[in-house]
Amino acid sequence: MFAGRKLLQQTITLFAKFRMISSNSSGNNCFRVAILQLTVTADKSTNVANAIKRVQQAKLNGCTLAILPECFNSPYNTALFREYSEVIPGGDTCKALSQAAKSNEIYIVGGSIPEICDDKVYNTCTVWDPNGNLIAKHRKVHLFDINIPGGMCFKESDALAAGNSLNTFQLGKFKIGLGICYDIRFSEMATIYRKQGCDMLIYPSAFNMTTGPLHWSLLVRCRAVDNQAFVAVVSPARVTDSNYVAWGHSMVVNPWGKILEEASEKDMDLYVNLDYGDRENMRQQIPTETQRRTDLYDTIDLKNKV
Length: 306
Hints:
This protein is α/β, with parallel strands linked by helices. The protein has eight helices and 15 strands.
């Protein structure tokens, strides 16, 4: 039985490498990303097991990077965040993500999970390299506190503390900036990532049925065009009888503002080839970075004075 499992794993690895070579036929300016729009339940272990299974499928489909949704291991509910919270990186969810990254030799952006640290709870994204190492961690900077009469009222600050840093990671030669959901509304944060040299921005997110139809694709395309970068947003699938109903519609947008792939509201995965020639073409043809009037205005990273 052990020999059979070993042979299966070897077959999976060979098949994935073949798919990866095929999808990266344009050279190292391309890679394939998996957008994993999962159904989230009240059962943490089921949620995590489903995520790991989908990561393995992403590898089989030739992906270099797999991205999970916001709060993929727990319901999106302020009353439950502390109950579902765990330490990073020592918690069960992180251990599972680390092992999945290592066994599948893939980068994983672990959506977000409720993190407990010094008795505070954060909405936190972790990033794992193909060796299973934690290479980045981003705590949601802007907490989702809104009140739309007749629409949506939600106050993350009732249960969560805000992060205090901007965070990036390297995938080969490509630099990727991290945000979580409500962070995408703050263009200054994305501008700083662009100034730091980011080629792509990733936002695990869970917009709702009020703001989703109006602002979701608009904000994603704006961040892409403003910063001439790829932008990926990954939502949980829509569950209509849950306490918080997610909009879904995970997507990847290129630097020109074109939606490369978009999910529906259902549980599904997208596999998208990203060609960084698109990024370079736009930056050369519309060179806004060198045309900014920093003698009149600027966006500054106050922590790093950039």
